[in-house]
Amino acid sequence: AALTVRFLTRRFIGEYGDMEFIYSHNLTMDGREILFHIWDVPSSQEQAEEGSSEEKRIQWADSFVLVYSICDRASFNILPLKIQFIKASKEGQNQEKVPIVIVGNKRDLHHQRVVSSEEGRLLALSLDCGFYEVSAAE
Fold it and tell me: What digits encode the pLDDT tens for the residues 78-126?
């Protein structure tokens, strides 16, 4: 949620509840108007839901940004299963590669890091995904 709000408003807010939100945002890039619809789902809510809700979100989306905390090994470890589920759901239908980016957040908290940058890069490479490390706070 912090990363989404930072993208939409350029502000950082540190505390969020476990609420699901859909945001819309217009952006002009290279002279083209792009409309984003962002379905922001906290991982704690996702883990508690049935597969059908997650399947609905996957079918709704054209691309995916999966965010983990570099300070939370469990948030990183769940990514391979999520990505396999997304690919099976999306790519099985039309054989097109679905755009997926893995983002390690909280780079500013390097002193609490438990997932190395190299681990993130290797996971993204092995799953054919993009990779970035960022700090929503900075």
Answer: 999 989 988 888 776 566 788 999 999 999 999 999 999 999 999 999 9
Q: Which CATH number does the domain housing residue 32 bear?
A: 3.40.50.300
Q: Which residues pair with 66 in a beta bridge?
A: 102
Q: Are 57 and 36 in contact (CB under 8 A)?
A: no
The alpha carbon torsion through 14, 105, 132, 92 (nearest 10 deg) reads -100
Number of separate domains in the chain: 1
pLDDT tens digits, one per residue of 21-39? 677 778 888 999 988 777 7
**Residue 132 corresponds to which tokens in the numbers above?**
């970035």
Instruction: Indicate whether 138 belongs to any domain.
Output: no
